[in-house]
Every structure is written in C-alpha cells, then in structure tokens.
Description:
CATH class: Mainly Alpha
Structural class: mainly alpha
Strand content: under 5%
Largest sheet: none
Amino acid sequence: MRNKFDNELEKLNLELIKMGSMIESSIELSSKALINQDLTLVKKVNELEIEIDDMEKTIESHCLKLLLQQQPVASDLRIISTALKMITDMERIGDNAEDIAEIARFLVKEKFIKDLVHIPQMAKATISMVTRSVDAFVNKDLKLAEEVCADDDIVDNLFQIVKEELIEKIQENTNNGEQAIDLLMIAKYFERIGDHAENIAEWVIFSITGEHKQNQEKI
C-alpha cells in the first residue's frame, strides 16, 4: 500500500513539473510578445493558458483522490496540501502572463518610449523563481526554497526602477502617459508573478518543516 502511495506522489511531482514548465513558457512567451511586438506569441500565451487551467484541474483531482483513497500520514498531508496551494499560485501566474500578453497586443504597432531593459530582466528573474520553487518541492530542498523567497527582492527592486523611469518619461512628455501606464502595468504583473513564486516557495518550506512563514505555527 505504501509503495502505491509513493508511486502516486511521484506522479504528482511529475504533474507539478509539467505545470511549472507550462507557466515558465507562458512568462517567457508573454515577455517576447512584448519585446518583439509579435501577435502570434500573444495567441500562443492564450492557448497555453487553457492548458494551464486544465493541468490545475488534473492535479487538484489527483490530490483529492490521494486524500480520499489512501491513508496519508501527517507528512503526506503536508505534501498534498502544499501541492494544492502551489497550483493555485501557479494558475494565477498563468493568468498574469496572459494579462501581460494582452497589454502587449495593444503595443504591437507602437514605438516604445524607452528601451525595454528592466522588464525582460523581471521576466528572467521570475522564470528562475518559478523553476527553482518547483524544484525545491520535488527535491525537498529547504535551502533552495529559502533562496527563492529572498530573490523576490530582486523583482521588487526592478519594479521600482521601471516605475521611476516611466514617471520620468511622463514628466518629459505627457504624451508618453498612455504607454507608460501600459508598461507600468506589465511590470506590476511581473512583480505579482514574483510574489506568487515566493508564495510557492513558502508552501514548500511548510511541506518540509511544518511551519508557514505567515503564521509561524507548527503543524
């Protein structure tokens, strides 16, 4: 019975890795859709979002079956509940990536008011956070999860730089205002993706230690 349960947990890991790969692709595609002003990439993000939603339902169903059909001990319950929390944040990351792509759709024919330097850096940082947070769960790597939490500061700092640069562009010329707001919204969505990746890492820490950062209570 235990071997069967362990096999199901391994299957769960593979599903989470697959969903993680999907949202990494979605972030990357939305960033490229903006930078390259490419409508075909916007469409790919939209299509991928449907797959991400379906994957969330698949994993949720798998977790519920494990809870109902097996006899999980406390540590198993933490793993399964963490997976359920993770996929909620992962699905929201997919939503944020789609939001970025939708704004990029309206900027396809516009000349950018500034070089896009820091927004691609935000995309790269958030992809790394997502990848490592899922890896931390699969490998039960506490140190890696803690590093992901710390890296959210990198994304936050980049957001502040983008915001300050865009405010400066508006001050230079009020005609820059509309695009500046669009780019600021995109940067904000990347910041939210970083927050969701940090949430995932915090739940990974919970799955390993039984302690969650928000309340510091042992479970």
